[in-house]
Every structure is written in structure tokens, then in C-alpha cells.
Design goal:
Elements lengths: L5 E4 L3 H12 L8 E4 L4 H11 L2 E3 L2 H7 L2 E4 L3 H11 L8 E4 L6 H8 L5 E5 L9 E7 L5 H11 L3 E5 L5 H9 L1 H18 L4 H22 L3 H7 L6 H11 L2 H23 L6
Length: about 280
């Protein structure tokens, strides 16, 4: 994009991960980034010192410079922020939202202007450049703007394009997904400790086991059921462990956790966006 300047509304961990990725991959220069946070001035000063980017608490200052606006605040703050931004937004801006539950239509209606909007759902692995990000196009976004968004989010990991009606499911799956795996590791560490392994040994074994399993899925192109069956000998140790997980309805627990998170994502949008809702 010509005269690219990226303005972040919100300066939390996701905004920082994106800034770090974009600068590290030379997608932007530090002088092409402005971060806004209306409450935490100390946080802004820390980010300015760390990345040499511009920071501000003034909406107008961001909008007069930015060609790309990234919404990176909490869902409850989106509507008020957009109402404050509306007088300064034009069709020449591109809005990227990483806010859970808030649709492109919600944003378009708040602005009441034909500004292109693209919605994205990264995850916290963006902090190390390994996010799984899904993006969806709004009503007014063009193909070149979608390509730009893909390039931007590839600075923090991998990107897939999905219909927007699937983004709440993506939120429950890969958006919340890292926490499910961290919880699994917690449980495995505890089981290992109770069965005599020290915490550090258990942690190292678990991390490599998870990393190896992920690489097997990625590099062999085999289905997870094939790989599971390949290491599950009848009557063996793995068969015993899998049988216990099945007896405790592990599959149903996973289904309900992802479905519940998906539903909560949709609820967040409905509860925090009231403008023009029928």
C-alpha cells in the first residue's frame, strides 16, 4: 500500500506481537507505526522505548497519519472507540479488526461509511511468530486489500481465509486453542509428578512429545486417527491410556469446550455492539 502507516487502537499483548512481527520481517519501519492507548500511558512509553514507534492517546492524531487501522482493544470498548473515530475515517482507510465476536458488519454500521474492513483472529502464539490466523473480508474490502492483510498477518505466523460466519468457530478452535494445550500440559505434568517424575523432566518430555506430534501431523499428511492407531497396539500401554480417555468422554469434553468458546465469541459481539442492531 502506498505511504503505508499502521495505527493500532489498543496496545495490549496482541498489538505488541503484531508490531514486533511486522518490524522484524521489515513489513514496516518503526516510524510507520503508531500505537494508541487511552488509559495506560506507562504502557505506551514502554512500547515506544522498546520498538521506537510513535505513541499517542489522541484518536485524531492516529487517523490523520494511518492508512491502516488495527482494532486491538477489548470487545466492550469497540463501539465507543468507533464512534470517536467515525468523524476521521474515510474510504481510503483500511480497518483490520482482531477483536473477538465483533463482525465486519458491526464495524461498518458503527462507521456509517463505505470503509473496507477485514476481520482476523490470531492467537497468542503470535508472540513468537507462530500464530494460526484466520481472516475474513467485509462488504467493501477489495482483493488487493485482502492480500495485504494476508501479508501482514504472515509476519506473525500462518494465515487462512475463511467465510466470516466461521470466524466464531475459529475463535473457539485456534483463538482459544493454545490454552487448551497448556491445560493439557498442566494435567500431564501433574500426572507425571504423582507417578514419580520430577517437574523439570516431565515438562521437557511433554514439550518434545507435543512438538513431535505436531510435526508428524504437519510433515506426513496422515490423519490424526491414522497416527493414533499406528502407535496404539491392542492391549498395550497406549491402548490402555486411550481407553481411559474415551471412558471419561474426552472427545465430548473437547467438543463442548470448542462449541462453548464459539458461542461465547458470538455472545460478545451481540452484548457489546448495540448500534443499529435490529
Amino acid at each position: 500500500m502506498n505511504t503505508l502507516h499502521v495505527g493500532f487502537l489498543g496496545a495490549g499483548s496482541m498489538a505488541e506481537s503484531m508490531v514486533e512481527g511486522m518490524i522484524a520481517k521489515s513489513f514496516v519501519l518503526p516510524k510507520q507505526v503508531t500505537l494508541l492507548n487511552r488509559i495506560n500511558k506507562e504502557r505506551l512509553e514502554d512500547l515506544q522505548l522498546k520498538y521506537n514507534v510513535e505513541v499517542t492517546q489522541d484518536y485524531e492524531r492516529v487517523l490523520t497519519k494511518a492508512t491502516v487501522i488495527i482494532l486491538a482493544m477489548k470487545p466492550k470498548d469497540v463501539e465507543k472507540a468507533l464512534q470517536s473515530l467515525a468523524p476521521y475515517i474515510t474510504e481510503k482507510h483500511l480497518i483490520l479488526s482482531v477483536v473477538a465476536g465483533i463482525t465486519t458488519k458491526d464495524i461498518e454500521e458503527c462507521i456509517d461509511f463505505e470503509t473496507p474492513v477485514i476481520r482476523a483472529m490470531p492467537n497468542t502464539s503470535a508472540a513468537i511468530g507462530h500464530s494460526a490466523t484466520a481472516i475474513s473480508s467485509g462488504r467493501y474490502s477489495r482483493n488487493d486489500q485482502l492480500s495485504f492483510a494476508v501479508d501482514l498477518f504472515e509476519t506473525i505466523g500462518t494465515v487462512v481465509h475463511v467465510p466470516e460466519n466461521q470466524l466464531d468457530t475459529v475463535t473457539g478452535l485456534s483463538g482459544s486453542g493454545p490454552a487448551y494445550f497448556y491445560y493439557m500440559v498442566e494435567c500431564m505434568e501433574r500426572a507425571a509428578n504423582l507417578n514419580g517424575l520430577d517437574k523439570e523432566t516431565a515438562r521437557n518430555l511433554i514439550i518434545q512429545t507435543m512438538a513431535g506430534a505436531a510435526m508428524m501431523l504437519s510433515q506426513t499428511n496422515h490423519s490424526p486417527s491414522f497416527l493414533r492407531e499406528k502407535v496404539t497396539s491392542p492391549g498395550g500401554t497406549t491402548h490402555t491410556g486411550i481407553s481411559i480417555l474415551q471412558n471419561y468422554q474426552f472427545d465430548e469434553a473437547v467438543l463442548q469446550s470448542i462449541t462453548g468458546a464459539r458461542n461465547r465469541s458470538a455472545e460478545l459481539g451481540h452484548s457489546h455492539m448495540k448500534t443499529k442492531r435490529i
